[in-house]
Amino acid sequence: xxxxxxxxxxxxxxxYHYTGPVEHxxxxxxxxxxxxxxxxxxxxxxxxxxxxxxxxxxxxxxxSPKCYKLTDTTVIGCSGFHGDCLTLTKIIEARLKMYKHxxxxxxxxxxxxxxxxxxxxxxxxxxxxxxxxxGGLDEEGDSETYKQDTYxxxxxxxxxxxxxxxxxxxxKNMENVEQLPLSQEKAVQLVKDVFxxxxxxxxxxxxxxxxxxxxxxxxxxxxxxLRKD
Amino acid sequence: xxxxxxxxxxxxxxxxVCQYHRGGFSFxxxxxxxxxxxxxxxxxFSSPAARKTGTxxxxxxxxxxxxxxxxxxxxxxxxxxxxxxxxIHYISxxxxxxxxxxxxxxxxxxxxxxxxxxxxxxxxxxxxxxATANRMLKQMLFRYQGYIGAALVLGGVxxxxxxxxxxxxxxxxxxxxxxxxxxxxxxxxxxFEDRYRPNMEEEEAKRLVRDxxxxxxxxxxxxxxxxxxxxxxxxKVDYLRPHDVANKKGVRTGNYRYKHGTTGVxxxxxxxxxxxxxxxxxxxxxxx
Lengths: 229, 288
Hints:
The structure holds 2 protein chains of 2 kinds. Helices cover 28% and strands 26% of the residues of chain A. By secondary structure, chain A is an alpha+beta fold. In chain A, β3 and β4 form a beta hairpin. The longest helix of chain A has 22 residues, at 82-103. Chain A is globular and about 70 Å long. Chain A starts with 34 loop residues before the first strand and ends with a strand. By secondary structure, chain B is of the alpha+beta class. In chain B, the strands form 3 sheets. Chain B has a 5-stranded antiparallel β-sheet, with helices on one face. In chain B, a hairpin with a 2-residue loop joins β5 and β6 (95-101). In chain B, α3 packs across α4 (130-143) and α5 (185-195) packs antiparallel against α6 (202-219). Chain B is globular and about 70 Å long. In chain B, 38% of the residues are buried. The interface between A and B is large, with 38 and 42 residues. Chain B: It is found in: Cytoplasm; Nucleus. Chain B: One of its GO terms (molecular function) is threonine-type endopeptidase activity. Chain B: Keywords: Cytoplasm, Hydrolase, Nucleus, Protease, Proteasome, Threonine protease. Chain A: It is found in: Cytoplasm; Nucleus.
């Protein structure tokens, strides 16, 4: 029986005999799933992630959150390859300490983002397989600059969440709608609802949702259960 | 008639080649597909994949008959395509079949064998036997050399008693007291190997199958949603769909309905249709 596998890329029939040593590739990466989401409003920022760690068709852990607190005003969400997430956050925390010791102050959110960019580019030719989103407050945040509500989704269900956020926070693709600024309560409610929906359709998202809410009082955590199947 | 067909062939020979259809898969387009796939890959796209069910299905023989179980999630890659699909298929009034693997293959294969078995049953004048359905399924799957990706758990009760078979895509079958198939089969089999005993009572058997499918639903990412059960005994079939709603849809607190006018209208044309309403039938859509 002739099958598609018998033909090579150029359409000629492949010769069926052992040609010599066969190369088996080792992949240094694995995909451990997980979705992260960050929303910034006028006087608050949220970073949310699900807590499921998976590989292939299995679940490694139902309680592995992907939000990492860096300072009192900054939280980072990392999903992708768990090994690289852990190493990257370790490196960031070390660099934060070094900065604090030499400059006698904590790094601002913007500074952390800029530093992360250089850390990631340093591995341009053997990348960290991590989707990062940083959420935080700036001390002297000029309210004019941060007038626009910003939001970003990353990770396995990002393609499902991002369009919904574009619609509900950015008011895209809608007309005749009152464009109210995003309050903290509405943002938390929206984040919970979008993760409930993502858990319905994405197999890698589920188990529980952890939301880190950053205000000038500090970082508060909220945990909400999600579908476990 | 044959003579006229031969004449037609000779006339058509000037235009095209007259070829008998041999049945089975036609591999004419393989060469073309290989070339197309290489071209597509060069541009960076990938060809669409067949939808698989990524499933947990199982069956167990107990004192009075068989219990079949299945989850209800169908996946397309790692996205859930159907949250409540039915994986336990009807073969005959006393024989049912669970299907894992390519969704279209399990659906069509079980329908074809069900139809043939009904004709066979009318011809013999007897209730069909499970072994007959097994033979028909394995002979078809072997004929297609594994290209039909259907992994089945076939169970039923006939005049010779309760029987349970597992059938693999290449056409091999196993006759066993308890079987599991699909991506969640290892999780389900772990439960069976722990708690299976011969000659269980009905409630115990239903609990065992329910727990085996639940193990697949919660520990395998390819399986999920609800648990369907099918209890087959001599003279009675209990098709319990759903037997257990193991996962309820999360309740959203916000309201996401849009008011009229949210989608901008560019142009509007109204054409009245002068029709007479004979019958009105309303079927609600599942908007949950």
